[in-house]
Amino acid sequence: MDYSLISVRYAKALYLLSIDKNISEKVNEDMQLIKEQYGNSNKLSEFLNSAVIPKNKKKKLFQDVFGEHVNEVTMKFLTMLVDNNREGMLQYITLDFIAMYKKEQQIKTVTLYTAIQLDKEYITDIQSFLAKELKSIVELEVVVREHLIGGFMLMLDGKLIDTTISSKLKQIKKQLLS
Question: Which pLDDT does position 1 carry in this prediction?
Answer without folding.
Answer: 57
